[in-house]
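Forgive a beginner's question, but might I ask you for the amino acids of a protein and the tokens describing how it folds?
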Amino acid sequence: MNLKLSKSSVPDEEPDPEYPQGRRRDRDGYLDAIPSSGIGVLAVALLDIELRTALSSLIAVSAIPSALRDYAPSRDHDAAAFYAEMHATGTIETIFPAPPPVEVHASKIGRPRWAPKVDSIEMLSFKSPYTVHHPQTRASYEAHTRNSIARAMHWRHADGPRPTIIVVHGFTGSPFWFNSNFFSLPWFYAHGCDVLLAVLPFHGKRNDRWGPYSGSGLFGGGVAYLNEAMFQSICDLRVMVDYLEQSGVEHVGITGLSLGGYLTALMADVEPRLHVAIPNSAVTHFPSLLDSWFPAGHLAKAGLRLSKHDDDTLSAAMSVHSPLSYPALLPRDRLFIIGGLADRLAPPDQSARLWEHWGAPQIHWFPGSHILHVGRASYLREVGHFLRDTGFSPG
């Protein structure tokens, strides 16, 4: 389903002469970019609402022990103020500094049953070179030693190196077999691409040994841990770009789902060596999700009231790593957004915000939800054309 702009219902809508292709903004300054949806789409959305409530409850439960054990209103307030100041005064270079040279270890493994036609599979690991920004958080964050070892799985053709897609999983979605199926990675591999599946901070083997679920560590230390994990993710992904470049890979692309889509979009703002970026069902602005993510969002707001946060400080603190805070370094014709009309974990407005921010690049709306990608074959065909047209791969 391709993008079709619906007419705005706002009577005082005015043309924006500076916006590409003469498109229009509504009175809130927000582009009405989301196609209208039918009853079928709304029915599919019910599945996402159930999942959103479950994930939100997991987040809330994982955050409560830390809050009870270590809660200090001034600590969390000071951290938010620190990141808000960073957002106001920092630059791409100071917030996301280029990582130093790192030795990456590669070891071959046997082909699993869910990737039987891959010529060679290697497990990559390296010591994350990331240095925590917030001084008062550094010691506790770095005490999570399992998180300090970054990991990835690398699918390679025997006659490589080939153009390589870095795949970034979503929150809790770190199993390699799951991402292979969800992203249709054998399809990408069969079309001539090598594939690198990254593991995000506090996920999989990077999570604490007794963590209740993959990704639980992201919310173990308030806004500081979440922010530092986003910074560390970008640092580690850039190390992987370094590794691929040093291995002779000429074209590196990136795609990701949900939180992985967030980081995919952010990488397009930070890493100029990428050839293409394809955020899929991406979250793009955390503060705007708080109201819809029950109960975690409501608990977060209650905590903010206790710590005397103001909404502007929190929004700025969490926007320091938002892809909406920085211009894309990639040309518009090498950006491709995929969004679900029935998505209720990363609602359509999240993708529409990014589409507007990036100046209306190619976008594909599918009539499915966050977990049920109805029409996946259609957007895969478009992705294949996109990779061919951008010169990334023959397609």
Notes: Residues 1-31, 67-71 have pLDDT under 50 and may be disordered. The chain has one domain: 14-389. The radius of gyration is 20 Å.
